[in-house]
Amino acid sequence: MPADQLAERLTALRADYEDLQAKGLELDLTRGKPGADQLDLSEGLLSLPTGHRDRSGADVRNYGGLEGLTEIREVFADLLGVDTAQVVAGGNSSLTMMYQVVTWLLLHGAPDSPRPWSQEEKVTFVCPVPGYDRHFTMLAELGIDMVTVPMHDDGPDVPAVRALVADDPSVKGMWLVPTYANPTGAVCSTEVAADLMAMPTAAPDFRILWDNAYVVHHLTDVETKSADALGLASASGHPNRPIMFASTSKITFAGAGVAALAASPENKAWYLKRLSYAAIGPDKVNQLRHVEFFGDADGVRAHMRKHRDLIAPKFAAVQEALSARLDGLGVATWSQPVGGYFVDLNVMDGTAARVVQLAKEAGIALTPAGSAFPYGNDPDDRNIRLAPTFPALAEVEAAMAGVAVCVELAAVEKLTAPVVE
Amino acid sequence: MPADQLAERLTALRADYEDLQAKGLELDLTRGKPGADQLDLSEGLLSLPTGHRDRSGADVRNYGGLEGLTEIREVFADLLGVDTAQVVAGGNSSLTMMYQVVTWLLLHGAPDSPRPWSQEEKVTFVCPVPGYDRHFTMLAELGIDMVTVPMHDDGPDVPAVRALVADDPSVKGMWLVPTYANPTGAVCSTEVAADLMAMPTAAPDFRILWDNAYVVHHLTDVETKSADALGLASASGHPNRPIMFASTSKITFAGAGVAALAASPENKAWYLKRLSYAAIGPDKVNQLRHVEFFGDADGVRAHMRKHRDLIAPKFAAVQEALSARLDGLGVATWSQPVGGYFVDLNVMDGTAARVVQLAKEAGIALTPAGSAFPYGNDPDDRNIRLAPTFPALAEVEAAMAGVAVCVELAAVEKLTAPVVE
């Protein structure tokens, strides 16, 4: 576009932006939180359980039962495609279980570690980007270094991962959200998963923290199955490599659900042993509450279809708003996820922070630019995570129309800015 | 008693013991677990909450609210005698909160630490004995050394504590169950608490983990108030010294209650900052459930009187059974607690392990001898913790009559054993 047309466009966009600001919006697309209508789907939980004994006859109201109720472990096993014996059902947060695992690796090391990780000179994690901000801030808090690899539509870039892990024994771990990844929506293929589980690593105690937070969070009627991480790892001689996490946080109540971990027998025994010093048992009443509510894994799947019906229109609204203004302009690309909680927006390089600022000043809160990268550092300043589930549909429409204005305005601002010599 | 009388007594006791074994008992006095009738008192929780918003209007079913609902924090503040601003309400386990604090001291250090505790050559905790086994096993798991001081009726032996902390900067912490201590039932006086909070310590970051697990667990109508640890510490210029813990585990459901921590503003901010990397928020639905169930702190107090009515007879049965057989024999002493969950039995030196073995072989499970000491090491082999709340009253009577036989038998066995030169 010639300079005079760009200048005209800038004037028009500034007018659009003023109109946007004049609306006095107060909208929030920052976090992957369920909407109130989604939470209402689980209202039945509030008058459960009706009983207080589990299948074994144990009183769920009392202490004990560190690995969780067998019946809720069965539900998780079915959903995750693992054996019940591999599952620990815990408290209300899979993030907490991940944090436990990482801190125990630091304080004690894994069963196959030469020493506690905290006694290594350096510990490094491979982080596919863009990724989940809480994964990265946790590692930064714990003094673990991070190196990034690109996340593709079928999972992390395997050659890049291989190159990082092959020779450097300080590279001891890797994050992965395998299904409907946060934020790209990518689904790790069986081929990629098999490569990751089989690849040689310099560290004998390499771990892949397989955060299957969105395992049943389909946005279409194609209900993608996650790769069989534990089976693939076992088949390739690295049974201890993956540790799997999931929860019902975005199934029932975010914050009052049940989390789970699944792993090899050795990893599971290691986890439970450490846990035995930190806890007497999980909230088994809440576990039984969930078992009574769902019945079985198919009950969960049926429930997830009700979530899909509520949130798929919001994801469609994001696509429509972005397409309506930005299609063909060449200033942005975005994901078209078939599951999960996010749309991943890539704006013109060097404008993501400006887009977030413009949106903020128009009353639309977006996740800070860069937050999907370790240390908050998006080297291209182009990535923005959109979370459309929490606001009402009309709010998503209004917010995304506004975001589209901000994306184009920031791009044209950049293109028309005087070049600094 | 002359040797021939002792031999006669041994024969009689062996007959009593055979009778005991013939009863085929299967009784368990090992853990401080509420009985089913106590859990029934909280059955109303299972159909709560009726609402899903807290006082601030936040939807308790969704993410967030790391420090817990204000209204449950108010209840804990009232019960613990602290300000609401000092309280964090957490998940289902105060043990987990203690474990978090200790691991974060190791990994990060306290606000007033020169460095993370894991970077010290040695870290030592002062452990009043007998004490709570899980306190000690936690420290052993985490590589923290333990030194013991005697527990008196008014709290830990202050001169002994002073001597340990005054000059050795590796002595960085201390456990204390201030009210109705596990297992002795001792109540830490205000004088002792004031001394502990004011005493000079070589470590600038000395912490007293004030585990007020039994703060409202009175066995009589004298409802003893705990010493004001936070106030005393603040007044003596050591506001960060104590960190207080409590939970509703033995108030509502053990395992499905709400735990809390209370501390100075600096400690609390430190705890919440660390916690923010490990969790998004506590189970606020369960917190609101508890708020609706109790109303306020007086609701908790009224509820505890119902517990008292159920368990005081069991404690009386322990006293009766021990007195009936052992009064005047000089082979055992035991506590007469006015609160808490335990009776502390001291048998003849060198016979505790034998008593536990005899009881086991008669179908009565007791906590392993020595478990109230660090590393399970009771130097006098005389201490046994009795937990009478979980079995039914008739079972407590039967079990304790049996325990009394075992205590006397072990003593007479010892007195009549050939002396090994």
Automatic annotation (TrEMBL), chains A, B:
Highest taxon of the lineage: Bacteria
Signal sequence extent: none
Molecular function terms from GO: transaminase activity
Name of the protein this chain belongs to: Aminotransferase
Keywords: Aminotransferase, Transferase
Alphabetized Gene3D superfamilies for the sequence: Aspartate Aminotransferase, domain 1 (3.90.1150.10), Type I PLP-dependent aspartate aminotransferase-like (Major domain) (3.40.640.10)
